[in-house]
Amino acid sequence: MKPLSRRKSPRRIAGAAAVLLALATGAASVLLGNCGPFTDVAADVFCPFVLEIFYLGITTGTTATTYDPTSNVSRLQMAAFLSRTVDGVLNRGSRRAALDQFFTPTTTNALSVVTIGTDPKGLRSDGADLWVAGNSAGTVTRVRTSDGKVLETWSSAFAAWSVVVAMGKVFVDGETSPGQLYRIDPTQTAGAVTIVASNLGNAPIGLAFDGARIWTGNNSGASVSIVTPGATLPWTVTTAASGFTNPWGLEFDGSNVWVADAGAGRVFKLDASGAILQTVTVGLSPRYLVFDGSNMWAPNTGDNTITVFRVSNGNVLQTLTGNGMSQPQGPAFDGQRILVANSGNDSVSVWKAADLTPLGNFPTGPAAPVYSASDGVHFWVSLANNVLVARF
Amino acid sequence: MLLGNCGPFTDVAADVFCPFVLEIFYLGITTGTTATTYDPASNVTRLQMAAFLSRTVDGVLKRGSRRASLDQFWSAQNSTVLAITTVGSSPEIVKSDGKDLWVSNFFGNGSGSVSRVRASDGKLLETWTGADSATGVVIAMGRVLVSGYSNSQLYSIDPSQAAGAVTTVASGLGANASRLAFDGARVWAASSSPTISIITPTGSIPWTVTNVGGFGLPAGLVFDGANIWATDANAGTLLKLSSAGAVLQTVTVGAAPNFPTYDGSNIWVPNNGSGSVSVVRPSTGAVLATITGNGLTDPAGTAFDGQRILVTSLTGNALSLFKAADFSPLGFVSTGASTNPKAACSDGANFWIALNSASALARL
Question: What is the pTM of this model?
Fold first, then answer.
């Protein structure tokens, strides 16, 4: 197998091909065009496409003044073109670009912090506001993401743990035994949450929605509960317990619910009834999961790694290490980046989701970050010890 | 250096190109030629290129969507889990300003109103009154513009002000003014009179109205970035219009085409009388596909969220979803008996549907 063959006098080959093309079409006058910096690209209908991928940085040309338009593309070259295309589109298309926010806070002084007033755990954004579970006080706090203002606090969410926004409502699971599922109608005045089910497996802490039903991962119950919304309360609960050791977080990938089993060191793909369809062996104590549209990220709290696997076949793509990770958990995806909260060293680690490369480790102050979420612009991280939520 | 070690690929050198290969592998754009080889030196055929580009587009749109960043990879599967917001009587059209939804209620407050609903939580924020037979809605110029069906008027709402009565900014539109569109300078209204009205904003009220005739039954309007297109429900056509309202091109679609949507490349035309959707390329006027099935019965409204097209079936009480990039069906969901979903829009994260007979908005 030979390496890149385009290095062999591309200008001469391109010129010869252009002559043939020009003779064939009778367009002898457009042999050497003038398309931006490229002397070997005609100023014809293809020129704007060449210029666009040059201006976007998808191609750099074969030299500063040549593009070598008639050569074939090798699979290796294509990889570069497509990879740069993905990066450029995601970077430009992000809400952060439109808001001129290309920075990530790199010091604790640069963080925005919001006092919640209780130890925050799970959190999710509805697109405008953030909903934060307060475990010890049994509260759910609504924070406006645009400015970090605390808008309201809901009560009676005993042992509140994880949050999911679905069906125009906010759902929170209560880490009680048996477990409870709470509901908030965000259009109403803040008050006590509504209990929609109180017979979940013991200590539910994971939470997900699949488009029809709400799933909980029951930590000490060694089970997964599936709650079906109905016209009247309480809602129907079925609980699947076969094959689980110590379930934590759940994530829906558009087709299936996956659960991280911290006790088993595995992530399970579940069918609609909660039975295990596939087992992916990951690291020690995977607690929470996040899906990036292609791949599942499972931070392994016990061995300071992240297992990244493809949901379509369960194949592990890479086990990430380093990047400052210490007891990583509570991951989030913002469309480009994955963030994990490091409760072990009071920091967050950020990764480029497309190529799994590290983007840095940033301090949160002495505050034990545990969970995170994206609102589409910022990451928000719950800092358990300092009763704060920080905005990245 | 020929045989490197680049991720799973034994035939890719660990050099400057390796990160690119790994990125498209991790993204699922390539699967490799085998589990351990990528065949880096081979050329790419046009057929293979189609697969690579198609997967690239899909991956970018999926990751870049607001739904991905909000961890919402699900779609509502049944009517029980649809979020419902009660609005005024007979909601006709719903449009998003990026944060709030604006709904025209034909019989709201007795004779017509406009509801403002917060998209993040579905809360009814305001009701604007005095919008007699409110029908068409377009959000432009920092205003919410609404057509009055029975009195041929164009109403304006300044959303920065306290809710109250709407302001009439133009009169004398074609009788039974319905759908609206904006082209960057002027407001267009389709009327069953049959007329298309072009309303030019001016420094003072009333704004200038030019009525153009010669149509069968103008129903829906859509602007593709260059031209206004109108459906003619009588003729079964989609018409490309000049800036003066003259017909530049006629595309034959199905029977009784209703309210179309542009997805950045193509126009989706719901054919109410044919139970189908025509997908038309505006650059050429070619019909790319005529789609049936997937819950389509009498398609009326359409909406695009950046990835997906939603089509309402008015008396079929169903919402059908399609992948906009390849027209493949993504399933359908019922809105409940006799709800009559008429129009829809996206707020960037969720679809919102005006349930004409339920005095409500549904969120999908």
Answer: 0.91
